[in-house]
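FIELD: query
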Amino acid sequence: MKLKQILIYLCLAVYAYFCYKMLVIAMQYIPYHTDVAFLGIKQDVIGLLHYRVAFFTHVYTSLWVLPAGFVQFNSGILKRYKRLHRISGWIYIVFVLLLVAPSGFVMGCYANGGIYSQISFCLLSLFWFYTTLQAVLSIRRKNYLGHQKWMIRSFALTLSAITLRAWKYIIVYLFHPPPMDTYRMVAWLSWVGNLLIAEIIIIKLYQNEKSRKNSIV
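FIELD: result
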C-alpha cells in the first residue's frame, strides 16, 4: 500500500472518529436538555430565548453538515452517484446558509473567553456563510472551478468543529493552560489554520487546471 493511500485512510479514520464524537456530544442535549455538558457553564444565557433557539438549532442541524460536506469531495460518489452528490450538496448549502451559520453567529456573541473568542466565532460564522453563498452563486453561473474553490473554503470552515476539539486536546496535553486561555486560543486556531490549508489546496488545484489547459492547447 502506498504512503498516499495510508495517509488518506488515516485521515478518514480521524474524520470518522471526530464525527462520532460530535454525535455523542449532540446526543447529550436531545431531545431538550438545558443543564448538561457545555450548557452547564452557560446557565447565565440559556434563559434567553434567542440563545436557546440558536443553540438547539445549531446542535440539531450541524450533525448533517459534516457528512453532507464530505460527500461533496468524494470523487467516487461524484462519478457514480451524481444525484446523491446534488442532494447532499443542497442539504449542505441550505443548512449552512439558513440554519447553522446564522445560529453559530448568535452563539458566537455569547462565546466563552470574552471579546477575543466572540470576535473569532462571529467572524467564523460570517466567513462560513459568505464562502457557502459564493459556492452557490458560482455553480449557478456554471463556474465549476470557482464552485469547487469556494466549497473547499466552506468545508474547511465546517471542519472547525473538529479542529477546535483537536487543538484543545493538543494544547491541554502539552501546555496545561487555564481553561479560558485554552478556549481563546482554539477559537482562532480552529478555523484560521483550516483556511490557510484550504488556500494551499486551491493554489495547487489552480496550477493543475492551468497545466491541463496548457497541455490541451
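FIELD: remark
The chain has eight helices and no strands.
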